[in-house]
Write a structure and sequence with these properties.
The chain has helices at residues 3-13, 16-24, 31-51, 57-74, 100-111, 125-135, 150-161, 182-185, 195-212, and strands at residues 87-92, 115-118, 139-143, 168-172, 190-191. By secondary structure, the protein is an alpha/beta fold. The chain has two domains: 3-74, Orthogonal Bundle (Methyltransferase, Methionine Synthase (B12-binding Domains), Chain A, domain 1); 87-212, Cobalamin-binding domain (Rossmann fold, 3-Layer(aba) Sandwich). It has a five-stranded parallel beta sheet, sandwiched between helices. Residues 85-212 form the B12-binding domain. InterPro entries: Cbl-bd_cap, Cobalamin-bd, Cobalamin-bd_sf, Meth_synthase_dom.
Length: 214
């Protein structure tokens, strides 16, 4: 049994303490490594079990709750409110309840020194727009995992990209590896297929900012 399978089993058992202990015992505590090699494959396994009717909706919800608990305990948002930080906000489209992926991305931005706001599941566009207008983030991350929400994605990207401060719109979620989302993003957003691409984008963004001030 792989380490990711062991973690998935702990999530499904609802074992908060053991799941947290299991992660803390991993030899590599790098946030990116844990997300890529353990959390993401574990939750994908659980998603596959649910899709194949091998576990119930209640089982899937229990596992999600345990995963959320472990993520929150391990990676708390930085208390540093420096005004020099770049800002990024993250949310799921209205009707989207699968929020763990976007929560991990939020955590990676926080680790890189960004000030972040995480809005979780199912945030209506009107509230996303209101928050973005007030806070003026440089980046807005969106998560989509349901096929029938693709037209909704198009509306979110178009509206958020048109904000006065012109934020970069990042689009992630399970659909990014299964479907061509370009028609829904229409060159107004950046499709992010996995956590490695998030890290690459962050590094390139930082490099561009450094070069701009030289």
């Amino acid at each position: 049994m792989s380490e990711a399978e062991k973690l998935a089993r702990l999530f499904l058992e609802g074992n908060h303490a053991e799941a947290l202990r299991f992660i803390k015992q991993q030899p590599d505590q790098n946030r990116m490594v844990l997300f890529r090699d353990l959390f993401t494959p574990a939750m994908y396994m659980i998603g596959d079990l649910w899709e194949n009717n091998e576990i119930s909706v209640a089982d899937e919800h229990l596992a999600t709750g345990v995963c959320d608990f472990v993520l929150s305990r391990l990676f708390q948002v930085s208390a540093d409110e420096s005004t020099h930080k770049k800002k990024a906000m993250f949310l799921c489209l209205q009707g989207e309840q699968h929020y763990l992926g976007i929560k991990m991305i939020n955590s990676l931005f926080d680790e890189k020194g960004w000030e972040t706001k995480y809005y979780g599941a199912s945030l209506p566009l009107e509230y996303a727009l209101k928050s973005a207008l007030q806070w003026k983030p440089e980046v807005i991350g969106l998560s989509v995992s349901i096929v029938y929400n693709l037209p909704v994605l198009k509306n979110y990207v178009r509206a958020l990209a048109a904000l006065p401060n012109k934020p970069d719109i990042l689009v992630g979620g399970r659909l990014t590896e299964k479907y061509d989302l370009e028609p829904y993003v229409n060159k107004q957003g950046i499709i992010i297929k996995n956590l490695k691409q998030v890290e690459k984008w962050l590094d390139e963004y930082t490099e561009e900012r450094i070069n701009a001030y030289k």
